[in-house]
Design a protein that fits this description.
With about 325 residues, this protein is mostly helical. About 60% of the residues lie in helices and about 5% in strands. A hairpin with a 2-residue loop joins strand 1 and strand 2.
């Protein structure tokens, strides 16, 4: 393997890898998997954050509405960005991070409604501007295919820990800037893919939301790594961000164990993708007292976002039915 991205394994990096590995072992991924509400919340936070970093102004409520198939007020471009991100993150686990065709396919889905050359490497020079100042000039367009081939091959063959590979890939991808547009969100998407293929838990975590909260530091780490001609600073920043999202969701996971009661779990065991009335659910649970059913079973499940109503605008409608999300 000839191509070797420049970086140094520092004591800080070693310590962060140890802390992250220990934290991964302490999170109950089953809770996140079994909670549609947590999965949905994290996915929406991921999409909202990765697009906000690029200037999209749609907030959590608007992105939630789009995910739910509702119409929202907003620019056509910003709504198209959300549509592309929804599809890309949904298909993320089906791709291989070292496969160039998967990378191009992901970019096509992510940016297909926004640019004509989506899914193709750029054919012209690009630079990254901050105000009127050019802060990064990407390699010449004719070098992009070879540089990406080398990076993808390195990511597959590297013997470094997946945590390091994911961070290095993210930085090198941003340095190469292989596409005309969408490079930032693609770099973050692909780091999540690398992490997810190490531990599936990462498909469920909103790493992008932590990056959004530290956006100035994110760009500073990229800039400092450019100046240093190696990605060490960026690796340290991203590992700190990964650890932060793990800590946040460890707390969320622990809370999930408490919130999902035995009664709610019993209700979920009899509800599937078919619409059922309250009476039908009560019959399957062998319950006869409607007030107890609503207080201990139905309302908590609705509050947790585990089930939904057929007619949410009229919660007390006699024709109301329910099914799992």
């Amino acid at each position: 393997m000839s191509y070797q991205p420049p970086f140094t394994i520092t004591p800080k990096i070693i310590q962060l890898i140890s802390m992250i590995s220990e934290c991964v072992g302490g999170i109950d991924a089953t809770v996140l998997n079994q909670s549609p509400q947590l999965r949905k919340q994290n996915r929406i936070k991921t999409i909202t954050s990765t697009l906000a970093i690029e200037g999209n102004t749609l907030g959590i409520e608007q992105v939630t509405a789009i995910v739910d198939g509702k119409q929202v007020m907003g620019s056509q471009r910003e709504i198209a960005e959300v549509h592309g991100a929804i599809v890309a993150y949904e298909l993320l686990p089906t791709w291989q991070y070292s496969n160039e065709q998967d990378l191009l396919k992901a970019h096509l889905l992510l940016m297909g409604e926004l640019m004509r050359d989506a899914g193709k490497y750029r054919a012209k020079a690009v630079g990254i501007h901050k105000g009127d100042k050019v802060v990064h000039v990407a390699p010449q367009a004719n070098r992009v295919p070879l540089l990406m081939s080398d990076l993808l091959r390195w990511s597959k063959q590297s013997e470094h820990h997946a945590l390091i590979v994911s961070c290095v890939f993210h930085y090198e991808f941003e340095y190469i800037h292989p596409f005309t547009d969408g490079n930032g969100r693609m770099g973050r998407l692909w780091q999540t893919l690398i992490l997810g293929q190490w531990k599936e838990l990462f498909y469920l975590l909103p790493l992008e939301s932590v990056i959004k909260d530290k956006q100035a530091e994110y760009y500073s780490a990229l800039s400092q790594s450019d100046s240093d001609a190696n990605s060490t600073v960026f690796i340290e920043f991203m590992l700190e961000s990964i650890y932060a999202v793990l800590i946040q969701n460890q707390q969320q996971s622990d809370q999930g164990d408490v919130q999902v009661s035995d009664q709610v779990n019993k209700l979920l065991s009899v509800i599937n993708s078919d619409w059922l009335s309250a009476a039908e659910i009560m019959h399957q649970l062998s319950l006869s007292h409607r007030a107890t059913f609503r207080k201990n079973y139905l309302n908590p499940a609705l509050e947790l976002g585990l089930i939904k109503m057929s007619n949410p605008d009229s919660p007390r409608s006699p024709k109301q039915k329910y099914k799992r999300i």
